[in-house]
Design a protein that fits this description.
The chain is an alpha/beta fold. About 30% of the residues lie in helices and about 20% in strands. It starts with 13 loop residues before the first strand and ends in a 10-residue tail after the last helix.
């Protein structure tokens, strides 16, 4: 997420450069990711936000190397430290999963095998990558349970014997089993109530600060990013439209879409009602010239509909992809009213 000098700084934990992914569909190829570029340092927590279908989960799957069978990485690099993951054969790529990059999935029930004890499942991950005995692996699982706040005496239980919040902690323990450099969290608390959700994120922050892994959190909830992430990437229709420090983007969003996402979040104590962005994301099987957000943007004019916007760099390591960057400050002041989103 930072501008870097390769002469003075070590390689970032993760560098994604010019990544494009396409899905084959009955309606033709769908461009799920288009020219994605960003870097993440080893101690950063980065929030990846946007509406459903904007490419967030596809990006995580591409990083993990588990894109669906109808998906193809068309171009780009995904570098883990000094290794381009896309250049590895399948066996070498498989070895990076859990050891170097791990994932906390949206549903713990889908991540855990219901007919095997949770401790055995984590032990299998450890022993698949490290030459350790069962007793050594079992001790490591007990340590992991303690680390995430689960009674280590419950390693012999089955997934159905845990509450939703405890199952999610078990999945976090599995993600940490091999001390990876990067953890990808794909809406990890969606099905949990807000109290348990807060407990889970508090634990993740504590672990990240202690173990110094990089974290990418995928969510459609801007408030979760504001509370838990140091940096933020805003995606729309498979494109990064804005990124930078979370506090700066929340305080002063520079893309109309980022402004709309911010205004859709309820603010405690405020008399303003959250508003939605009119319209819906474009059909990615249809090529659309210009800015992909132009059909929903009140600021759009002819250049927005005709020409893809350039990437503009700013202070505080900010990036925005918008022709109307200079007009968004004034727009943000009135964008909390639904009337401001009427198209001309």
């Amino acid at each position: 997420m930072n501008q870097r000098s390769t002469k003075t700084l070590p390689a970032p934990a993760l560098s994604v450069q010019h990544l494009s992914v396409e899905y084959a569909t009955d309606s033709g190829p769908a461009e799920a990711l288009k020219d994605i570029c960003f870097t993440i340092e080893s101690n950063q927590r980065v929030g990846l936000v946007g509406e459903s279908g904007c490419g967030k989960s596809t990006l995580l799957k591409a990083i993990m190397g588990v894109v669906a069978t109808n998906g193809t990485v068309k171009s780009g690099q995904i570098r883990l430290k000094d290794t381009d993951l896309l250049s590895l054969d399948e066996n070498s790529r498989r070895k990076t999963r859990w050891r170097d990059i791990s994932m906390i999935t949206q549903s713990a029930l889908n991540a855990l095998n219901p007919v095997h004890r949770v401790g055995d499942q984590i032990m299998e991950v450890i022993r698949a990558h490290q030459p350790v005995s069962r007793n050594e692996a079992r001790t490591r699982v007990q340590e992991l349970f303690t680390l995430v706040g689960v009674d280590p005496g419950r390693t012999g239980d089955y997934p159905h014997q845990f509450s939703g919040g405890m199952r999610q902690r078990v999945v976090i323990a599995m993600a940490l089993a091999l001390e990876p450099q990067i953890i990808l969290a794909d809406e990890p608390t969606t099905a949990l109530d807000v109290i348990v959700q807060d407990q889970i994120f508090t634990r993740i922050r504590e672990l990240q600060e202690k173990l110094s892994f990089a974290l990418i959190l995928v969510t459609h909830d801007l408030s979760l990013v504001a509370e838990n992430c140091t940096h933020m990437i805003v995606m729309y229709a498979g494109v990064i439209v804005e990124m930078g420090p979370t506090r700066e983007i929340i305080k002063n969003p520079r893309h109309p879409y980022s402004i709309g996402l911010r205004n859709a979040v309820p603010v405690p104590g405020s008399n303003r009602d959250p508003i939605s962005i009119p319209g819906s994301p474009p059909d990615l099987t249809h090529h659309q010239p210009g800015c992909l957000f132009s059909a929903r943007c009140p600021l759009a004019d002819d250049i927005c509909h005709r020409t893809s916007p350039p990437v503009r760099q700013g202070k505080e390591n900010r990036m925005v992809r918008c022709h109307k960057d200079g007009e968004t400050v004034l727009f943000a002041q009135k964008a909390f009213r639904q009337s401001a989103w009427k198209l001309s």
